[in-house]
Amino acid sequence: MAVSFNQIVEAVQEALIRASTTWRPDQQQRYQEAIRNEDSDSARWVLEAIFENFRVAADRQVPLCDDTGVPHVFLEVGDRAELPAGFLEAVGEGIARGLRRLPGRPMAVLGDETQRITQSAGLAEDPGALVPAPFQIKRMPGDRLKITVLMLGGGPEIRGRTMRVFHEHSLEAVLAEMVRWAAEGAARLGCLPCVPAFGIGRTNLEAASLALEAMKNGDFTLQSPLERHITAEINRTGIGPLGLGGKTTALASFVRVGPQRASGVRIVSLRVGCCFDPRRATVEL
Amino acid sequence: MKLETPLLQDDIDRLKIYDRIIICGKVFAGRDAVLPKLVKYIRESRLAELGIDLKGSVVFHTAVSPAGIGPTSSNKVDIESSIPVLSAAGVKIHLGKGSLSGETAAALKDHGSVFAVTPPVTALLSSQIVSRRVAAFPEEGMEALYELEVRGIPAIVAIARGESVFDLAGRGGDRGWL
User: Fold this and answer.
1) Domain coordinates of chain A in residue numbers?
2) Residue B158: what pLDDT?
């Protein structure tokens, strides 16, 4: 049976609240391991505070971080799924209602093009005025619909980049560059431990989309050899939680490799996710 | 160590890096949009017009919104560049997150001020707010200069007396990233 407009509004709203206020079990488990593994008092103090913050946020359904982030929506639509009229409108409405209920940080910048760049016409007071990023959409088998809401904070965006890497037919060459970017970003991020997400694609847009998909799929307890390698290399820096030194600079890495172009170049996109990343929740209808 | 505002120079002079502190009393909250404006008023000797006294104060690099409070990256240009001028004007603790440059560390030392970091634990931090009011520049919304009264904000001293944890943090590792 086709899902209704209102079901979608409700489900998206719930997903946004869940993404913003709680952690999944794999994320909790990884933090507990990291706390046990740290020798430094300062590092353990930071990790324990972040874990306690999760407990309080989840219990009271309040934001994990005051930078509640820019909503990103990943839609997976079954080949035989029936969508109601106004489907995308319903997703947008769910996002707006979720932001008002959370409440999201009222950070939509008002004004025309110039004013939006210079932030000279002030901010919207309505948290729901924050327009989500362009939706990402993918087909899947079956008749169901999966909607994932991801909330992307600003700090990781400052540390991210999308750029070409000359691969020289060597995985090591590409990995070395990825680790270098992530370690440089981590050194300046502040909200450590980080969770870097990478996409490797043929164009800048595709690579960035794949990085978002990596965040959608990533599991802290199911790490590929590639992901484990990147995490271990970042942790060798010793930058540690909040930059105070320690063993846990990265909790995990999420990598998604897409189709590639016949060329000596790979386009790599990185988001140096923060200590709450990925703030995401999925609903299936 | 509990520190109550307004802070005395003696309180600050005792601090060293990695010290764990709890800040209580009134603190200012400001970030990207408002700190450069505040700096402009200080440079033009017009701070009195705002009715703000920065002597012995704390500036927390955060927005203040219904979503709560939490440190933003202090190494953003608008914020880090405000630190020397605000320190000269009497700000004793700059509270935020992220590494700062050697020049900023030197300026902090010159003015007898410190940089402390706090984890981005909004759910915990927001519960410490007793009262809030817009102190200046209300047009900036969540980025206005706020005065918060807080029960206790936990932090770790990251830069003091010219020493920085960000110089030391990488030493535990075996790669020269920093």
Assistant:
1) 1-22+64-152, 154-278
2) 97
pLDDT in tens, B20-75: 999 999 999 999 999 999 999 999 999 999 999 999 999 999 999 999 999 999 99
CATH class of B2-162: alpha beta
Which residues touch A26 (CB under 8 Å, ≥6 apart)?
A219, A220, A221, A222
CB contact at 8 A, A72 and A59: no
Angstrom distance (rounded) from CA A180 to CA A230: 10
Dihedral in degrees, nearest 10, Cα atoms B71, B75, B77, B82: 70
Residues of chain B numbered 40-59 and touching chain A (CB < 8 Å): none
Q: Indicate if the pLDDT at residue B174 is higher than 60.
A: no
pLDDT under 50 in chain A at which residues? none
Least CB–CB distance from A190: residue in B20, B67, B98: B98
Q: Is the pLDDT of residue B178 over 50?
A: no
Q: Searching chain B, which residue's CA lies closest to the CA of residue A275?
A: B120
Do A53 and B127 make contact, defined as CB atoms within 8 angstroms? no
CB within 8 Å: B99 and A183: no
